[in-house]
Automatic annotation (TrEMBL):
InterPro entries linked: SpdB
Name the UniProt record assigns to this protein: Mobile element transfer protein SpdB
Length: 63
């Protein structure tokens, strides 16, 4: 089942978007997702700093 999330505080760092949302348990989560074609990288983090660091250091595996 897919999560129905309402994202807020969305920023873009290169091809990666970082956003904040609440998970199904009500905890605040921060997501970093790459929007480049054929790059399916995304991850949830507990802190905004970790998500932004992941966005800054992301390298797409597909060139």
């Amino acid at each position: 089942m897919t999560a129905n999330r309402r994202f807020r505080n969305v920023i873009r760092i290169g091809p990666v978007q970082v956003a904040t949302s609440y998970d199904d348990r009500g905890s605040e989560k921060h997501t970093a997702a790459c929007t480049a074609p054929r790059c399916n990288t995304s991850a949830d983090y507990d802190s905004r700093a970790a998500a932004e660091l992941a966005a800054h250091t992301h390298r797409c595996p597909v060139r």
